Amino acid sequence: MPIDIRKPNNFGSLTNPLPSGPLTSALLLSALLINALLITTSALADASSPTSSLTLHTAVDAPEGSPSLKLPAGARLSHLAALDGPRMLHITAQGELLIGSNAGRVYRGQLADDGSLSSLETLVRLSSYPHSVVVRDSTLYVATTNALLAADYAPQRTLSAQDFRHVIEIPGGGGHNSRTLSTGPDGALYLALGIQGNCSDQYLAGTAPHYPFSERRGGVMRLDEHSKDQPRWQPWASGLRNPVGLAWQTLPRGETRLLATNNGPDHWGYEHPHELLVAATQQSFHGMPWYQWKDGKPQRDACIESVSPQPLQEISRPLAEMPARSAPMGIAVVPEGHPLSPNMDVVIAIHGSWGTAPDGKAWGDPASRRAPRLLGVKLASGNEQTQEQDQEQQHSALTPLLTGLQDSTDGARWIRPLDVAFGPNGDLYMTSDTGASGLYRITFPSPHSAN
Length: 451
What we know:
The chain is mainly beta. It has helices at residues 22-33, 388-395, 447-450; strands at 38-41, 56-60, 70-72, 76-81, 86-91, 96-101, 105-111, 117-125, 132-136, 139-143, 147-152, 165-169, 179-183, 189-193, 219-224, 232-238, 243-250, 256-262, 275-279, 284-285, 291-294, 297-300, 320-322, 328-333, 346-350, 373-378, 397-402, 415-422, 428-435, 438-443. A five-stranded mixed beta sheet has the order 13-14-15-16-20, with no helix packed on it.
């Protein structure tokens, strides 16, 4: 079913249902203004950043009550389409943009040569939760909470639910139910999944009888498709509470590593523990739920009584820390030579959790919640999983890229970024599953036009 694509510089009316009342009016107003506002320079200080060298710009001449959106100079944000609960993005080699959702739909768009969206439709409806989608060779894979599904695929091919086959079960159950797929440089499929709650005694690299298959959660798995009988999951990285975003980064010497965002627990309050960006390398252990990251080191969490499956000294240090209750979701590596590359190596979609100051509970002042935004991270050079990572983690810098998505007085959220992906021409695409939900595009001035 085709979906309406918004014209450039004109948001039109939102087609997804929104609650009635003052919040609805604010969301509609924000959607109408995002791409057409005039821009003026204004430095943005970010208290959570060690350094922030990128100057953002703020909108002026906006009617009272509109969002105070801030972007880098010359960057423009446009709302391409309203979608129902969009989640993770995947851009194919043919320029197709595939989007999972929490509404039982997989969306498909086609990118034009200039980065605009030439078409958008619902590719297939599934009865389960299709959080993420990837295409590898001539197969389309969908990760639901409980299973990996696959269908034969070619660009522009139509699909129905009956075209999908069951590849392998995924540890399911309650709690954190997102399952994020990624294709590695080795051609294998990798999958991120979280533990059920804050203190669930679940271990992705565990074995029976203490950790049956259903309890092997909290990290990244790799699909072994060359076993004798049938595909099987292999533990890749463990000890993560709720990893959502996955991205492969090529390092200066040509080696690659898998980056993962991790959402920390809720029971330590508003300021701790920090959210993390980690290198999810083979056999790495990140400590959770037995240890949480605080004050630059892992600290024992008394909420779980079982013995940690790996000792304290085996816990891998994070590459970067973000403020607690930020809820980092998708992550994208900044392409080489991109206008953003001097200031950041990756862009992270910060969803903003429900926790309020000062104690992190849900029923406080909504305006005190961590604001949704796009956040850049500049990673210092260093060797992963060694003592040099101490220096790397200390020097990683957080740099705001898109802010002003939450009203500072009543906490209304105009947009909540869920995932990000760079297109072939350097445009940044973003999904939002709340407020003015849908698909967004950020364009950047070329280096030549900036001179």
